[in-house]
Amino acid sequence: MSGPLLDVAAVGKRFGGFVALSDITLAVPRGERLGLIGPNGSGKSTLVNCICGTLRNDAGSVTFNGHRLDGLPAHRRTRLGLARSFQLPRPFHTMTLAENVQVPILYAARSRGHRGPGSGLRDGAEALLDMVGLGGKAHQRPADLTQIEMRKLELAKAMASDPQMLIADEVMAGLSHREVDEILAMLLKLNESGITFIMIEHIMRAVLAFSQRLVVLVAGRKIADGPPHEVIRDDDVVAAYLGR
Amino acid sequence: MENLRFGLGAVVVAACVFIAAKLIGNQYVFFAGYVVLQYIVLATAWNILGGFTGYVNFGTAAFFAIGAYATVVLHKTTSLPMPVMILIGGVLAGIVGLGTGYLTLRLRGTFFSIATLAMAVVMQTLVTNWDFVGGSRGAYVIRPAKSPLLGGNYIEYLFLLMLALSVIAVVAARAIQHSTLGLGFASIRDDEGAAEAAGVPTLRLKLLATVLSGGFMGMAGAPLPYYVTYLDPASGFSLSYAVNTIAMPLIGGTASWLGPVIGAVLLGTLQQVATVTISSALSLLIVGVLLVLFVIAAPRGIVGWFQR
């Protein structure tokens, strides 16, 4: 199919009198690694929530892979191949890691007739946990995991829905230098396998290493969109982060 | 099939219970046993929504009374056999579950619970003002003297029906727990937003849980008019049904099908014994004390205690 995989057209969102997003237009071609940055409160997570269906946008439209998403509940969007990871990991805490991954396999990947990696359900879950390096912990519960393992589980859960696009909302916040590199390598490998990425991140080193294109949001508006190293030298962007 | 084997096992256990009750040869065993079985059904039904899916329902009495009052109406207008009345009561309560679920399931946590409590009050007010079913005066139901099945009197028959109903409820709850549906319910309980992001159609699953839960509660209530022979709104909608039905799974453990069964057998039996030996007013006190003890000492119930 031609055209971008994700097309965000003039999306707006208000909370009462507060304009959280205003006239955001953004196209993400298949296979791209897009970085989305902006100061705290600039509307990054609101935009992700509007794309993924956690919030409804008041204006504009979101099209994914040729499907108009407006009005679709979040689970339908996941089933169409649009996966996300949450800023703070949100595991299913009473389930084992294997069961955590089985939920999206059963409810998202299988609903499209895809069987996900591996043949059986158990194999599929184990393959995903292996991929993120949690293979040995399939029968433990999330409470036993370290912070980075929790992020990896979050990634495995997102991947379990067999997505075409993954929106990674601050998957690396709070991780050490080495751990950031580990996650980056993992994301790059997934991108090579054909998954389109939107990465929201405050760790500039990671964003710059990962992104092919950078979009900057400030106060609910898109102020820059282009190659990363040009964008971070843009006067408006510098002003937004450092003040004039 | 695993579920089939468990079902057969449950039928065998139930048969043993019935034979044992027959052998004891005291009519009161059936009379008291009926209440314990009724609570197995109620607690198991409550747990499908409350334990598996994480939505605490304070409106048990409403669903239960819908089943009971459906029987009052059917008794006055038809001469259907009891099992059919149970089925109709269950279907009606399930439909009401669907309706209230649709109105209330967008509320989360405490707000949902308060809405179910309000629903029970509304239902009770409606029934109290409905003359055909006796209004606040209550309705009398003359029950047949003889059981149409396996001899004995009618109480034995009601006991047998409630025994069958508990087998069906427990087997269904266990099957759900180990199925894709059960995994979906658990994901809603753990984190509804994350469940939705994982592709789980949360609203549809919550509605299904409410219908199943409400339906079983209605079925548990349907034989009540024949059991008590006099039903008024105050007893049909008694808050003790709601309290007991929440306390039993909490004491037994809410995460699995076994918890409500253990809780209902334990607490139900204790209440029946206390009613006979000490006083009937004591039974609610027992529930209160046990509930406090368990919340402090074993918040995951008896099953959770042993799984540590």
Automatic annotation (TrEMBL), chain A:
Q: Which GO terms describe its molecular function?
A: ATP binding; ATP hydrolysis activity
GO-annotated cellular components = plasma membrane
> Which residues are in the ABC transporter domain?
6-244
SMART domains xrefs: AAA (SM00382)
- SUPFAM superfamilies linked: P-loop containing nucleoside triphosphate hydrolases
The name on file for this protein is ABC transporter ATP-binding protein
| Species in which this protein is naturally found | Rhodopila globiformis (Rhodopseudomonas globiformis)
Q: Which InterPro entries match?
A: AAA+_ATPase, ABC_AA/LPS_Transport, ABC_transporter-like_ATP-bd, BCA_ABC_TP_C, P-loop_NTPase
Pfam families found in the cross-reference section: ABC_tran, BCA_ABC_TP_C
UniProt keywords, alphabetically: ATP-binding, Nucleotide-binding, Transport
From TrEMBL, chain B:
The topology of this chain with respect to the membrane is: Multi-pass membrane protein
Q: Where does the record place it?
A: Cell membrane
Gene Ontology MF, one: branched-chain amino acid transmembrane transporter activity
Per the record, the major location class is membrane
Q: Does the keyword Chloroplast apply?
A: no
Q: Which residues cross the membrane?
A: 6-24, 31-49, 55-74, 86-105, 111-133, 154-176, 207-229, 241-267, 273-298
An example Pfam family from this entry, by short name, is BPD_transp_2
Q: Which InterPro entries match?
A: ABC_transp_permease (IPR001851), LivM-like (IPR043428)
State any GO CC term.
plasma membrane
Q: Key word Transmembrane present in the record?
A: yes
Which PROSITE patterns does the record associate with it? Answer: PROKAR_LIPOPROTEIN
Q: Which UniProt keywords apply?
A: Cell membrane, Membrane, Transmembrane, Transmembrane helix
Q: What is this protein called?
A: Branched-chain amino acid ABC transporter permease
